């Protein structure tokens, strides 16, 4: 065979094999790790390959291996933002908060556009909050909104939670209302109603709650909210009725052995407001036991403390 | 990598290889140099009961116009360019458009047109054509049509196609698509919608991959059927759920503010929509927070609380239960979807969950509460039948949406890519390692799912029927997908409970029974409904000897036989609550009970039946009765009309001084 023609054939064949193997064998997580390891060991030790392998390690919960690969990826390319973001989250997950914060700061440094910078600020705010520094965190979430006033649903939620954490509850309704108006997200609308209740703005919240009670199939969340408003306005009997019917519905919705976290939190809160402190504490203990996030446990804990103080 | 031995490659082999490579390159490049003006042919998006979107792409500037109407020969309505959104690549934009509107990585010169047609009649068929000014770009062809949704909350049959992990652009993907089209043509069926559970454009969900491996592949279906998509991990390599930017988000128009029903999520990454009395929930399992405090889970909870639909269908990419090419006991997204999202979905009354990611077809029994890691079948299976209307019968659920009333899980990651299997997920009833797709129809109170393989053969059929109020209890020993059988026998128990207050005796004390007492056992089918016991002796219960507590005294049994067989037919009172039925038995020493041939209770006998029983315990009747409530298996064994209760009573040993069996059947208060 002519030498040039042979090279052309060989190149075509290799290309075909490469693409074919890529197209057929990349779907199994372990197989993909093996494939990437082979590539890395056979000279393709690129930042991209280390990053890809890190993602697969993370999927399997092998955080050490993931972190190692991301470190190598970043040695190859210090401006590799996706890898930097990923290692930031892994460090935080491993409770290595200081390193996570440093890493998030580096994401900000590498960011070029306004959009990238604002998104990096939110990442840093989250890391600072995870490290127990909400005051510092809120500076960055505020800056993110200045850089990108449209924001995202998650940004508004984080910012409002941070405001609650630093006892600036009265600012929460405004930021959540703005977020709701800009995004249309029902999560922000509901968080706005919750913030109104926390700020004792019952007259604004109640008409919306009443409307939701009429149009909803499952009503326990709204009964719980209305009970809070009733308690705030001194309608104790009406509140107790709402709480009892709320618990009745939750009994149907909560799986006896494997309940959803947010539903246990609702039940705990209803029980706390009814004065069933022991039952409420059981729910709180269960939430803590199954690793519920503090955003779920804090409102229940506060309600229990409040009732106990009375 | 294995080295290639050049000497072994013959010129003939090389020629063949070269031809394959040329064809492969041609198949890729042909799509890019198509003479057709469309770089993406017209396809439908975001339909409601009064509106729809038609989207297409061209490589050149045009004056876009849509003409449409109810008569294919008279497209009497028009949408002009002033109402059609034109999107271009970022480098060609005039700077006035924001990030979300510029196309992410489309070829330079691409124009994407998005026409929203509104003020349409509900549940109506319209024909359409795309024009460049006066020049018609799509042919006069009735396949260019759309059908609006029925009004939310109204009854209307629904037929849809479910596909996952299809986007290879290869032969198997094409065959799966073709099999569906041929099947529908043969059955004279038309899709109302198409749901894709992700991984529709391998390898990275780029714009080019979308064009070739999704839009071009499914073009004849997409021109008249809306594809409602969930993002897969491969699309996630180039598209991001957080900001809704990337080729995936360029391709689809998904509801952000509840345009098609449900509650507004504020994002295209997760959303819901209604079709008549069916509510669909679509989640992003890939790159958004899956925890209960995340925005997606909070939206899901609120959306579930709001919907008043009669059917609830959820879909997303990562399966909570699989042992296909992925393992849901080991992988992060899969575990989190099971542990965090499934409890919410089941508390909201979800009926069926479609997923992909794992390249296999797996379909579960009727399950509830299977959130543990690793997944086990004990205590989570509500109905372990095959769900096939022509087999064990459909899964029965309460009418409407009832929390924790049972869910069927379908992993449909077999839409075109290479399929494989790691093991057996214990909750699954049907597993096929071959390419295919799922067709689902909902009519009134019955949902029927069919797995059609790439060759057009039906490999699995299941149904869910909703009527009345159904209370399920988890089955202790469900059907096992490894052995393909129910556990061979019921576990033996040592005794019953205190007899509760009785509302009605279905089979009373001292009732007449047919009985069989012999050295040989009766025929194998002695305990079934079909068996004729007319040759058996008759007598009033209780049966036995010694202790002076038996109405039918069987002195011949002493030192001779250990086993007595009893049969009696009965009918259930109308409207009976099956959960209140139970056996009340006085016995010495042990027994096994059957309903219509199915073993429902085993007391004091470790294993075996008839003459082959092992380890029979000793038990004194003492003139007392014990209560044994019917479990789910016993309830399932009951028939609507006449039933047979069959009992085999066993004595501990031949030389025993006494024996008693006195069964009754009660309905407790």
Topology:
The complex is a heterodimer of chains A (about 300) and B (about 675).
Chain A: H1 3-24, H2 29-41, H3 47-59, H4 63-76, H5 81-93, H6 97-110, H7 114-130, H8 134-147, H9 153-165, H10 172-183, H11 186-198, H12 202-215, H13 220-232, H14 236-253, H15 261-274, H16 277-289, H17 294-309
Helix pairs in contact in A: 2-3, 3-4, 4-5, 5-6, 5-7, 6-7, 7-8, 8-9, 9-10, 10-11, 11-12, 12-13, 13-14, 13-15, 14-15, 15-16, 15-17, 16-17
Chain B: H1 11-32, E1 38-45, E2 52-58, E3 64-69, E4 77-79, E5 84-88, E6 111-117, E7 125-132, E8 135-136, E9 145-147, E10 158-163, H2 171-187, E11 193-196, H3 207-215, H4 219-222, E12 227-229, H5 247-251, E13 271-275, E14 278-282, H6 295-306, E15 311-315, H7 332-347, E16 352-355, E17 361-364, E18 366-367, E19 381-383, E20 395-397, E21 408-412, E22 428-432, E23 436-443, E24 446-453, E25 458-466, E26 502-507, E27 512-516, E28 537-540, E29 543-545, E30 552-553, E31 563-571, E32 581-588, E33 590-595, E34 598-603, E35 605-607, E36 614-616, E37 626-629, H8 632-637, E38 642-650, E39 659-668
Parallel strand pairs in B: 10-11, 11-12, 14-15, 15-16, 16-21, 20-25, 29-30
Antiparallel strand pairs in B: 1-2, 2-6, 3-4, 3-7, 5-6, 7-8, 7-9, 10-23, 13-14, 17-21, 17-22, 18-19, 23-24, 24-25, 26-39, 27-28, 27-31, 29-39, 31-38, 32-37, 32-39, 33-34, 33-38, 35-36
């Amino acid at each position: 065979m002519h030498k040039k023609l042979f090279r052309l054939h060989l190149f075509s064949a290799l290309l075909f094999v490469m693409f074919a193997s890529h197209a057929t064998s990349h779907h199994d997580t372990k197989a993909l790790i093996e494939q990437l390891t082979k590539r890395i060991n056979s000279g393709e030790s690129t930042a991209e390959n280390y990053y890809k392998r890190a993602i697969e390690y993370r999927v399997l919960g092998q955080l050490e291996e993931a972190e190692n690969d991301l470190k190598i990826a970043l040695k190859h390319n210090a401006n590799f933002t996706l890898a930097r973001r990923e290692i930031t989250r892994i460090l935080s997950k491993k409770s290595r908060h200081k390193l996570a914060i440093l890493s998030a700061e580096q994401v900000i440094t590498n960011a070029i556009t306004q959009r990238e910078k604002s998104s990096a600020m939110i990442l840093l705010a989250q890391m600072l909050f995870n490290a127990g520094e909400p005051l510092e965190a809120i500076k960055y979430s505020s800056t993110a909104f200045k850089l990108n006033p449209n924001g995202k649903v998650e940004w508004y939620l984080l910012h409002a939670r941070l405001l609650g954490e630093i006892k600036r509850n009265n600012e929460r309704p405004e930021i959540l209302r703005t977020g709701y108006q800009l995004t249309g997200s029902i999560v922000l609308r509901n968080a706005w109603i919750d913030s109104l209740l926390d700020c004792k703005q019952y007259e604004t919240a109640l008409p919306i709650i009443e409307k939701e009670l009429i149009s909803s199939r499952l009503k326990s969340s709204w009964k719980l909210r209305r009970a809070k408003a009733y308690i705030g306005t001194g309608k104790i009997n009406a509140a107790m009725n709402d709480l009892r019917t709320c618990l009745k519905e939750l009994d149907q919705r909560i799986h006896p052995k494997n309940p959803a976290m947010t539903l246990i939190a609702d039940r705990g809160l209803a029980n706390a407001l009814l004065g069933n402190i022991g039952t409420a504490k059981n729910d709180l203990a269960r939430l803590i036991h199954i690793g519920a996030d503090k955003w779920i446990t804090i409102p229940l804990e506060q309600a229990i403390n409040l009732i106990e103080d009375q | 990598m294995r080295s290639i031995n050049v000497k072994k490659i013959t010129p003939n082999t090389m020629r063949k290889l070269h031809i394959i490579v040329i064809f492969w390159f041609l198949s890729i490049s042909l799509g890019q140099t198509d003479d057709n003006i469309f770089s993406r042919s017209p396809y439908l998006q975001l339909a409601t009961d009064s509106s729809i979107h038609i989207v297409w792409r061209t490589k050149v500037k045009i004056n876009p116009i849509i003409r449409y109407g109810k008569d294919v020969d008279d497209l009497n309505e028009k949408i002009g360019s002033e109402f059609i959104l034109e999107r271009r690549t970022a480098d060609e934009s005039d700077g006035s458009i924001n990030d979300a509107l510029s196309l992410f990585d489309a070829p330079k010169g691409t124009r994407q047109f998005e026409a929203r047609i509104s003020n349409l009649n509900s549940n109506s068929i319209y024909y359409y054509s795309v024009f460049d000014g006066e020049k018609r770009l799509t042919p006069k062809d009735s396949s260019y049509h759309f059908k609006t949704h029925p009004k939310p909350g109204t009854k209307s049959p629904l037929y849809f196609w479910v596909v996952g992990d299809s986007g290879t652009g290869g032969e198997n993907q094409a065959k799966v698509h073709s099999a569906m089209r041929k099947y529908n043509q043969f059955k004279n069926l038309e899709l109302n919608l198409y749901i894709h559970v992700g991984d529709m454009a391998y390898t990275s969900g780029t714009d080019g991959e979308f064009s070739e491996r999704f839009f071009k592949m499914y073009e004849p279906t997409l021109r008249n059927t809306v594809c409602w998509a969930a993002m897969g991990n491969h699309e996630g390599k180039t598209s991001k759920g957080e900001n809704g930017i990337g080729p995936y988000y360029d391709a689809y128009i998904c509801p952000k503010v509840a345009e098609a029903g449900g509650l507004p999520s504020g994002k295209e990454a997760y959303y819901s929509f209604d079709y008549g009395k069916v509510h669909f929930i679509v989640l992003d399992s890939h790159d958004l927070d899956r925890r209960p405090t995340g925005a997606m889970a909070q939206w899901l909870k609120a959306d579930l609380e709001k919907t008043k639909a009669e059917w609830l269908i959820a879909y997303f990419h990562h399966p909570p239960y699989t042992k296909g090419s992925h393992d849901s006991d080991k992988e992060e997204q899969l575990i989190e979807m099971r542990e965090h999202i499934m409890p919410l979905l089941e508390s909201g009354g979800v009926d069926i969950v479609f997923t992909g990611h794992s390249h296999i077809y797996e379909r579960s029994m009727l399950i509830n509460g299977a959130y543990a890691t690793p997944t086990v079948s004990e205590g989570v299976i509500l109905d372990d039948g095959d769900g096939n209307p022509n087999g064990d019968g459909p899964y029965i659920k309460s009418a409407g949406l009832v929390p924790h009333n049972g869910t069927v899980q379908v992993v449909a990651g077999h839409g075109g890519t290479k399929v494989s299997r790691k093991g057996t997920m214990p909750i699954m009833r049907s597993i096929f390692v071959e390419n295919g797709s799922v067709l689902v129809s909902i009519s009134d109170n019955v949902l029927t799912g069919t797995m059609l393989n790439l060759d057009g053969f039906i490999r699995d059929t299941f149904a869910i029927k909703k009527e009345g109020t159904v209370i399920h209890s988890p089955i202790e020993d469900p059907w096992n997908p490894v052995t393909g059988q129910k556990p061979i026998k019921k576990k033996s128990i040592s005794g019953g409970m205190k007899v509760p207050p009785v509302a009605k005796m279905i089979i009373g004390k001292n009732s007449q029974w047919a009985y069989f007492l012999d050295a040989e056992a009766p025929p194998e089918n002695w305990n079934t409904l079909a068996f004729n016991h007319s040759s058996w002796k008759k007598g009033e219960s209780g049966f036995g000897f010694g202790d002076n507590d038996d109405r039918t005294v069987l002195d011949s049994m002493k030192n001779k036989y250990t086993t007595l067989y009893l049969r009696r037919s009965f009918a259930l009172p109308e409207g009976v609550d099956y959960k209140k039925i139970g056996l009340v038995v006085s016995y010495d020493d042990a027994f096994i009970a059957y309903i219509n041939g199915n073993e429902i209770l085993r007391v004091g006998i470790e294993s075996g039946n008839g003459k082959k029983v092992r380890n029979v315990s000793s038990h004194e009747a003492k003139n007392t009765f014990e209560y044994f409530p019917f479990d789910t298996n016993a309830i399932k064994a009951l028939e609507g009309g006449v039933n047979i209760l069959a009992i085999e009573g066993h004595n501990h040993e031949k030389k025993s001084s006494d024996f008693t069996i006195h069964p009754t059947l009660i309905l407790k208060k």
